[in-house]
Design a protein that fits this description.
Helix content is 23%, strand content 33%. The chain is α+β, with helices and mostly antiparallel strands and 273 residues long. The strands form four sheets. It has a four-stranded antiparallel β-sheet, with helices on one face. A four-stranded mixed β-sheet has the order 7-10-9-8, with helices on one face. The mean pLDDT is 94.
């Protein structure tokens, strides 16, 4: 069962007073206990209602009402989401709320989440069930024969993405199981391109297989920029289709780069996104 443990607002939180270091530490310890118990899902503090708004609908028309709002005790200052077996277990965790908060004078509220099983079967419910199957994200993972570091650095330079991770085998618990000469090879790399991730890793020995039957697709608005990126990716590699205009794109090309990764680069036309 999933419960939201809500910390109600008070005069201090509505005034925007930030928690002390002592309270931050106490809340961190509290969260850590729940994390280790496997019940903590997530939690956040909320800024004062004066920095927010309400959207009220009347006859289907929205009206934006700027904060702050009255009835402070009915507002929220923050929340935690708990995954527990019963309301009684959720209450027991709520009882352990740090006394450093509000000098021991706070109001908490527990509310259970609905689940899909709570609703009658039907077409409307099926749409929600389908949405619940969606993953949090869809990323691309590439395999390399020992040159992952060079390849990912090159892709970061070409795309302008942020190389947010470059973890070697020697930096992982698997170091003892990997030959010493592979300790500087990459166990995990992640390139963030506008919130999408191109990940990669070096594959030891026979574990490596050259990519086949899949391409990384780059979509550009400017055709000259797309052409330049295509040329850079194709350098030292092999061009399957030169970059040029097609019936659906201002420019499109296919190439395998010098690391064995296959790419599609395009500037789709407005008629065919």
């Amino acid at each position: 069962m999933r419960y939201m443990l809500m910390r109600k607002a008070d005069a201090a939180t509505e005034a925007g007073e930030l928690p002390s270091q002592e309270l931050l530490k106490a809340m961190s310890d509290y969260n850590e206990r729940m994390i280790r118990a496997g019940v903590f899902v997530t939690g956040d503090g909320l800024r004062p209602s004066g920095e927010g708004c309400r959207i009220a609908f009347r006859d289907g028309e929205p009206r934006v009402v700027q904060g702050p709002f009255a009835a402070t005790e009915e507002l929220l200052a923050g929340y935690s989401v708990l995954e527990v077996d019963s309301l009684e277990e959720a209450i027991e965790w709520a009882r352990q709320w740090p006394p450093e908060d509000g000098d021991g004078h706070v109001t908490l509220e527990l509310r259970r989440y609905f689940t899909m099983q709570d609703f009658e079967p039907g077409d409307g419910l099926e749409r929600h069930v389908a949405q619940a199957r969606l993953p949090r994200g869809l990323q691309v993972h590439l395999s390399f024969a020992g040159n992952c570091r060079e390849a990912m650095a090159f892709y970061a330079e070409v795309t302008g993405g942020h190389l947010e991770a470059m973890l070697t085998f020697g930096e992982t618990p698997a170091a003892a199981e990997v030959p010493a000469e592979w300790h500087d090879r990459i166990a995990h790399a992640s390139l963030n391109v506008r919130g999408h991730r191109l990940m990669g890793a070096d594959m030891l020995g026979d574990c490596y297989q050259a990519p086949q039957g899949a391409q990384v697709f780059l979509d550009y608005e400017d055709v000259d920029q797309a052409a330049e990126v295509f040329q850079r990716l194709a350098e030292g590699g092999q061009v399957q289709m030169p970059f040029e205009a097609t019936f659906w794109a201002k420019g499109f090309g296919m190439a395998t780069d010098r690391f064995g990764v296959q790419w599609m680069v395009a500037t789709p036309s407005e008629q065919c996104p």
